[in-house]
Amino acid sequence: MADLDSELRQSGAGNVFTNVPVRRPRPSFKEPRWKRVLRSVAHATGAAILLAAGTVWTLRQTNPKFAKPGELLRLPPALITAQKPGTERYVITDEKTLEEVARVKTVLLRHTKDTARAQQIAVAMVQEGRKKNISPSLLIGVLLTEAADLNPRSRSFVGARGLMQIMPFHAGEWKKECGDGTDLYDIGTNICHGVAILASYMKRSPNIERALLRYNGCVRGTNTPHCHTYSGKVLRYAEKAASQMLNPSIGGSE
To answer: Can you give the C-alpha Rg of the chain in angstroms?
Structure first.
């Protein structure tokens, strides 16, 4: 049989159908296990980053108002509640503070349709109020008495500026907390100064009514007509705001 095979091969020399090179299988190469693990980890990490980035982008576009931070895909609250322009000085990470901001915001939305502005004011009031141990409802009372339309550019005939109607001579008194105060029309700067001023008067006054009168400049009742009614007006606004914060609704209006 071997001779027959040899003869067949010799007779087939030069024949394109028989003179075909024999393909030999290549030796198999097994990739190290650590490389396979590393590749799998890299793929999984890349997919997770893309998923998180896509989720954050979607949340920022839809701007959910009442979703509880941290429950959406259980992302960190700071990712879900992106800071609005003008509130970059404040970093909120706990749900209790975020809930309080949302309640203050619903009250403010009864006085403005500008949701971004309401958010900026609410964040500043909650954060600055906590520093001085002043309730947001009282700060809302002062705010609505001073600038009921929530206009950050408001200015009185005596030169008081912004939401909390800060006089220019107060600028820079609280540099460590509020900055140099060069722009009292800035929402965060204005509220920071207003809360600091009110807190200082509360420490030096026998009661809240007297502190509010001093905030208004109504020490002797000569700066504006009927300024002695200022405290009562603020406290009525504050009481109403406290009630609205307990039953938040954005459907109502003043």
So the answer is: 35
161 φ, ψ (degrees, to nearest 5): -120, 145
CA distance 162 to 166: 7
Q: pLDDT band at 55, cuts 50/70/90?
A: very low
pLDDT at 210 (0 to 100): 93
Helix (H, G, I), strand (E, B) or coil at 81: coil
Residue-number span of the structural domain to which 184 is assigned: 84-246
What pLDDT digit, counting tens, does each position of 237-254 carry?
Answer: 999 999 999 876 644 444
Dihedral angle sign, alpha carbons of residues 97, 104, 91, 95: positive
∠ CA 43-44-49, nearest 5°, is 100
Q: How far apart are CA 125 and CA 140, in angstroms?
A: 8
CA distance 206 to 160: 25
Does one domain contain both 184 and 240? yes
pTM of the model: 0.63
The pLDDT assigned to 99 comes to 92
